[in-house]
Amino acid sequence: MAVRKSIEVPRAALRRVFFQRCFYLFFVLLALIGVSPFMEGARGTYLLAGFNAFIVLAAAAALGRTALSFLLVFMFLFLPAAVVARGPAVDRRPPAWR
User: Fold this and answer.
1) Which of 45, 51, 56, 82 has the most Cβ atoms closer than 10 angstroms to its Cβ?
2) How far apart are CA 88 and CA 22, in angstroms?
3) What pLDDT is recorded for position 92?
4) 77: in domain
5) What is the pLDDT of residues 2-31, one digit of tens each?
6) What is the pLDDT of residues 47-62, one digit of tens each?
7) Helix count (H) and strand count (E) of the chain?
8) Which range of residues forms the domain containing residue 81?
9) Angle at 97 between CA 95 and CA 98, to 5 degrees
């Protein structure tokens, strides 16, 4: 019975830590810091921008208390990205290089 009681106390403490939303946000930020040096080129730039958008969205979900904050962050992150993605391809090179 004493062994069961000694296991219950750390289990309850770990349960409290793992069910907090900021704990998962912390690990996502650590993963981004670990992976970002290896992302190169155009594809890496888009992946890194996507990861950053999801981290901001996760932070708003973790720290925000209302659906309005989540909706505002969603609008500020994904609507401009959708406009850029659906927009025409623009050749940004100088006219002499075309």
Assistant:
1) 51
2) 39
3) 63
4) yes
5) 666 677 877 777 777 777 777 778 887 888
6) 787 788 888 877 887 7
7) 4, 0
8) 21-86
9) 70
